[in-house]
Amino acid sequence: MKKTLLLLAVCMGIVSSSAGIAYAATLGKISYWYSDKDIISRWSTKRYVWAGMMDKSITTSAFASYVSHAMSQWRTAGISSDGVDEKSDANINIYGGTYNTLKAMEPSLSSSNTGLTVYDGTLTYEGDWQYGTSLKKSYKIGSPVNVYIVQIDGKTSNGYKKTTTHEFGHALGWRGHSSNSNDVMYGTASEVTTLTSRDKNHLVQIY
């Protein structure tokens, strides 16, 4: 009888201890992974985008065309966003300017950056996606996300479109970079302006 009671007490202790452990949620299985990082993020709310030049280094109309291109590329992929006129209505802000202008706004900007995306809101861990036998951590994005597009002398329109589309991908949750130089989400500047199936499939699958 004493042995039975002791065994029961031990079993109850195991159950009680297990109840206090917080297990990560498994969000489901994903079919694609093209990032060099094991994390990915997404918005649970609608994306509202404000964009503006912080100086006169790029014309307002040209900058607007780069942002429009980026939004259109990701909208066609399956992740839509709306532009807004008032910055107070936005949860994604896209700033253009010279390195010095943007550096004064965002100290983490490096002289080697052609663009930078900063998650200035909350990133809330929501669980793991299963990709094959590995797990990829997933985070919900909170407002605001700030994107910086650096003016560089001699840079072409396609170069700016690539940078803006690339950084907007980060703003939507594409973390890390692709290792394929044909992808917009490749980590080095180029003039690739159209999202590839790799760019799209990697992120769209979690929305």
Automatic annotation (TrEMBL):
GO biological process terms on file: proteolysis
Xref: Pfam families: Peptidase_M10 (PF00413)
Single GO molecular function: metalloendopeptidase activity
InterPro entries: MetalloPept_cat_dom_sf, Pept_M10_metallopeptidase
UniProt KW Repressor keyword: no
Stretches assigned to coiled coil: none
Keyword set, alphabetical order: Hydrolase, Metal-binding, Metalloprotease, Protease, Signal, Zinc
Protein name: Matrixin family metalloprotease
